[in-house]
Specification:
The chain is an alpha+beta fold. The protein is about 40% helix and about 20% strand. The strands form three sheets. The protein has a five-stranded antiparallel beta sheet. A three-stranded antiparallel beta sheet has the order 6-8-9.
Length: about 260
C-alpha cells in the first residue's frame, strides 16, 4: 500500500486519569497523541465554566511555554481533547511522586541528594525568571522511572517583572518542608542537612536563608566568607610566588 494512503492513527488514545498527580485546580491525565505518550492537564469540572479559571490556565500556558529546564516538565501545546476540553499538553513523565515514595517508605539517599541539588536548581531557575507558582510539595515532585531524575510538574501560573522578597522566602520555607519530609525517611542522612532544613523552616523569617544562593552555598558546605578567604589566600600565595621568582634569591637558569 502506498504510504500516503495509509490510514492515520487516531489522534488521542489511552487517556487515563492520574488521581495522585491532581493539582488544586487541575486534573492530570496520561495519554497517547498520535501514538506518543504525553500528559494532559485540564481544569477540574467545577472550574471549567468559570472564566476566571479559564483565563488562569491560558495564562499558565503562556508563562510556561518558553521555560526550558531539565528539572521542570516542558509544555508542548494547548488544545482541545475529546471528553476533556482545553488541555495543556506536556512531556510524559513516567515515574513516582515524592509523596508516593514517602508513603511507600521507598525514599533513599539518592532522592535526598537530588532534592538538595536538582530541586534547588529548578527553584533558582523559577526565581530568576520571576515565575509565580503554587507551593512546591511532595505531590508535585516526580522522580522518573529509569534514571530517577527529578521533575517539577506544577510550575508557574504567572510571571512578574520582579518577585517580592516574600516570594523567595516562601520557596525557601517550602523547600525546607520537603527536605524535612525526606530526612524523616532517611535517618542516616548527613546531620548538617537537618540543620539546613530547620533554618529553612524557622518561624522567624529573619533567621531563614535570605536567598536560594545562600541556601545553595550552605548545602555545599560553603559560605560567602569561605569563598572570599579562599580567594585572598590564593592571591597571597601567587603574589609571594611572583616576588620569589623575581628576587635575587630565586634559582638561576643554568646556561
Amino acid at each position: 500500500m502506498n504510504e500516503t494512503n495509509k490510514e492515520n492513527p487516531e489522534k488521542w488514545t489511552e487517556i487515563e486519569l492520574l488521581p495522585e498527580w491532581d493539582e488544586e485546580y487541575y486534573d492530570v491525565y496520561t495519554a497517547k497523541k498520535f501514538g506518543k505518550w504525553v500528559m494532559l492537564k485540564t481544569l477540574k469540572d467545577k472550574y471549567k465554566s468559570d472564566p476566571r479559571f479559564s483565563a488562569m490556565i491560558e495564562k499558565e500556558f503562556d508563562v510556561r511555554y518558553n521555560l526550558a529546564h531539565p528539572h521542570i516538565v516542558m509544555i508542548n501545546d494547548y488544545e482541545d481533547v475529546p471528553g476533556l476540553g482545553r488541555c495543556i499538553i506536556t512531556d510524559d513523565v513516567y515515574g513516582d511522586s515524592l509523596a508516593k515514595l514517602i508513603r511507600e517508605k521507598r525514599v533513599t539517599e539518592s532522592h535526598v541528594e537530588k532534592i538538595c541539588s536538582q530541586l534547588v536548581d529548578a527553584l533558582d531557575y523559577i526565581q530568576r525568571n520571576h515565575i509565580v507558582h503554587f507551593p512546591v510539595r511532595p505531590e508535585t515532585i516526580i522522580f522518573t522511572e529509569n534514571i530517577g531524575n527529578l521533575k517539577l510538574i506544577d510550575v508557574g501560573f504567572d510571571q512578574k517583572e520582579h518577585l517580592s522578597p516574600a516570594d523567595a522566602e516562601d520557596d525557601i520555607m517550602n523547600f525546607g518542608k520537603v527536605l524535612t519530609a525526606v530526612l524523616e525517611e532517611v535517618p542516616d542522612a548527613p546531620a548538617y542537612l537537618r540543620r539546613i532544613a530547620a533554618k529553612c523552616t524557622e518561624p522567624n523569617s529573619k533567621k531563614r536563608y535570605r536567598s536560594i544562593h545562600e541556601l545553595r552555598l550552605d548545602l555545599a558546605h560553603r559560605s560567602n566568607n569561605t569563598v572570599y578567604i579562599a580567594i585572598i589566600i590564593f592571591l597571597i600565595v601567587m603574589i609571594g610566588l611572583l616576588v620569589w621568582l623575581t628576587s635575587y634569591g630565586a634559582p638561576q637558569a643554568v646556561e
